[in-house]
Amino acid sequence: MGALSTLPPPHLSHLSHSISALFRRHLRRLVALLSYPTLFTLTLRHLQSLSLHHKSLLVARHLLSNLTLLTHAIRNPTAAPPPPPPAAYMKLRDLDAVLLLLLLCELHQHDPNFLDAPPSWWRAILAGYVSDAVLRLSRLGGCSDGEALVQFVESVRRCWNLVGVMGCGGAGEGKEGREEAASAAVVVALPSVVVKGGEECVICREEMREGRDVCELPCNHLFHWICILRWLKKRNTCPCCRHRLPTDDLRREIDRLLEELAVIASCETT
Predict the structure, then answer these.
(1) Structural domains in the chain?
(2) What is the 3-state secondary structure (H, E, C) of the chain?
(3) Does the pTM exceed 0.70?
């Protein structure tokens, strides 16, 4: 919320509309799940077949998608929402499963005795619970920007709490303190620019000759392509300023985005 407070009213309104659209898409998936008994049964069986570790991965991917939307909107308020990062990709079946899991957890918080009911009753109970949300979100366009954003932040908090309880695992699980390679998809998308003046590549300490194509990182630092590609195969930070590029590790990505939001908020208050 501190980072969101840095946005001017027009950008805050733009973000709230994007978030409202995301809520509606997820709500449509839940309505489909609860409207078709066969789809609900298959999704519930798939969810129950997953280990706690795999459930935590689904929630972490969902959280990463939401954090990516949030940080992108704060950094680029009027730009179109970005595609989810590679680490957050999931099949439709898995999206249905994580939405159902989050719904089950939310209802359990409101009614701890809910899970005591026979599983054959769950769909009807959940449908009644979600019907109120449908009515609320049908009026979301008329509610305040703050209300939509508070709902979004609350969903992020709920996901984060679940990831903490379940123990999020990823490609880098157990590698705390070790360097992680930058995401291959991010490296491929790095732009090539032409050097306008004689600059030094801090990796090889050789001059980047004027007119030569070199790689530009998001922090605007330039490097020889061969140097930076070798560097990013082992670590995801800029050699000059330590700016962190995305990785394919779920936990690291979540931490990176949360740190970025914290920096935005702290800069606003100082």
Answers:
(1) 4-171+253-269 (no CATH), 184-232 (3.30.40.10)
(2) CCCHHHCCHHHHHHHHHHHHHHHHHHHHHHHHHHHCHHHHHHHHHHHHHCCHHHHHHHHHHHHHHHHHHHHHHHHCCCCCCCCCCHHHCCCHHHHHHHHHHHHHHHHHHHCCCHHHCCHHHHHHHHHHHHHHHHHHHHCHHHCCHHHHHHHHHHHHHHHHHHHHHHCCCCCCCCCCCCCCCCCHHHHHCCCEEECCCCEECCCCCCEECCCCEEEECCCCCEECHHHHHHHHCCCCECCCCCCECCCCCHHHHHHHHHHHHHHHHHHHHC
(3) no
